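ARCHIVE CARD
Drawer: 12
Card no.: 0347
Subject: one protein chain, sequence and derived structure
Cross-reference: see card 0346
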Amino acid sequence: MWLFLAQEVLFFGGLFAAYAYFRAHDPEMFHYAHKVLSWKLGAFNTLVLICSSLTMAWGVRMAQLGKRRGLIWMLILTLIFAGVFLGVKYVEYKEKFEHQLLWGRNYDPDPHVLEEHGIPEDVAIASLPSKTAAPAETPSVEAAVPPPAAADGESTAHGGAGTAPDEGPAHPPENLHIFFGIYFALTGLHGLHVIAGMGVIGWILKRAVRGDFGPEYFTPVDMVGLYWHLVDLIWIFLFPLLYLIS
């Protein structure tokens, strides 16, 4: 069991390393893209998983003490918390798919949706794929004709002609889709682990109803508890890395 848990740590460790590489390479992308995520939903899910970890730990204790009814109730509560977690993730995913806030070429949101989440207009437009970008406007005759040169005194007084005011970053990030690819990869794989955990907890619950566990034999409950704690711990790392970027 410990080897399996170590393999899981290495697996997610590789994903975290990829996250670190992309964030170090393009921090602005993460700064803007994470605004679309709801930190309140992320915080709620974190609280839900912490509660599920507590009920799972208490369930192991109930098995050690031979309290069959207490074990059954703790396992049921753990499954309920896990179901709530997945329900919240479904709400988040549904919103992302509706607005096409997806990965790779599937990323094609309405710029107004991004602006509603606090992403500047230039960044929102720059992040769109080329097929949805607005065609360049044909320059007018007035724009094609250069303005008359300023007088020497005026040019000297203002530090030279052609100096434009600061209009923000010259090159807004154009790859917000990478963030959403990372988001779906990390949270999707974690969600699959939650579903797998619910499956084995359900198996343990079935055996607990039969009365298979007691002070002399509770190893399966203990092993499943270790796996569930690891799943919860991974989310505790994912929450600040994805939702609390400043």
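Annotation on reverse: Residues 131-146, 149-170 have pLDDT under 50 and may be disordered. The chain has one domain: 25-132+172-243.
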